[in-house]
Amino acid sequence: GAGVSQSPSNKVTEKGKDVELRCDPISGHTALYWYRQSLGQGLEFLIYFQGNSAPDKSGLPSDRFSAERTGGSVSTLTIQRTQQEDSAVYLCASSLVAGGYNEQFFGPGTRLTVL
Amino acid sequence: GENVEQHPSTLSVQEGDSAVIKCTYSDSASNYFPWYKQELGKRPQLIIDIRSNVGEKKDQRIAVTLNKTAKHFSLHITETQPEDSAVYFCAATSRVGANNLFFGTGTRLTVIP
After folding, report:
1. Probe site for chain B from A26, A39, A46, A104 (most B CB atoms < 10 A)
2. What is the 3-state secondary structure of chain B?
């Protein structure tokens, strides 16, 4: 079946611009996560959604970052007033339900470059 | 919050030799420890995981061990092959029922033919 998809695959933007990154989770998965992977670094947790519950935003690095998940499916990560340090690969993952034993399936990522 | 440290950052082995990657975690409440493999330009994929009520788990050439007392866990790859070359990430959950994983910084494994 279809895996997690993300768009765009690459995004180049100018400092100060806003960007939106999209994630389509696996159909039927109720949990959705966003991570950031900087060059040579591990995956940094940003935010996760579980069904209709309030999202866990504890990993968002600043108030310039926000995310929505509409209808319990597609999610959009928005970065306002982008800075050069925002340059990274943004990975989305989904799992059947929340709970530590459930495998997270990753999308291919969006490579964001802020000039 | 949880802090996961991973060593080494790079590892080169001859084909057929074994590779060991080690991770430590800080939160004693963590109870799930997956390992992900990320090949160049591809997405991370789960290769093996272990729960805190188990000390060791094997899957063909891959094994993971967990020492809850010392709060460390390790990935062992035996009879390495060139296709094992990738970046490997360990991860841990921070609390029971949580699902946000805290990842190590990764180990770039190179298997030399």
Report:
1. A104
2. CCCEEEECCEEEEECCCCEEEEEEECCCCCCEEEEEEECCCCCCEEEEEEECCCCEEEECCEEEEEECCCCEEEEEECCCCHHHCEEEEEEEECCCCCCCEEECCCEEEEEEC
Q: Beta-carbon neighbour count of residue B61 at 10 Å? A: 13
For A48-96, how does the pLDDT look when each residue is reduced to its tens digit (9 = 90+)? 898 888 888 888 999 999 999 988 789 999 999 999 999 999 999 999 8
Burial class of A20 by CB neighbour count within 10 A (0 to 12, 13 to 18, 19+): middle
Q: What tokens appear for B96 in the block? A: 């029971």
Residue labelled with tokens 């000390």: B55
A91 in helix, strand or coil? strand
Per the rule left: phi > 0, alpha: psi between -120 and 50, beta: everything else, B47 is alpha
CA distance A17 to chain B (A): 26
Q: Which residues of A touch B91 (CB under 8 A)?
A: 43
- Note whether B100 contacts A48, CB cutoff 8 Å: yes
